[in-house]
Amino acid sequence: MSDIVAPMGGKIIDVKVKVGDVVNENDEVIILEAMKMELPIVATASGRVNEIRCRKGDAVEAEAVLIVLG
User: Which CATH number among 1.10.3720.10, 2.60.120.600, 2.40.50.100, 3.40.1160.10 corresponds to the domain 2-69?
Assistant: First the structure.
């Protein structure tokens, strides 16, 4: 299992995957707005999306787990 975490605090602009999707390492999975910039969050490993812990519009803290891959 692998977790995808927020590199910094911000607001979730878009979630590009859903539970059950298969992602490859470096696939864009979330768009985070931080410091008035859009920051793409990419998968740190390949795997299946087991859990999504955020939704569009959520405010997240730095190091918060956003997606759990299995």
Answer: 2.40.50.100
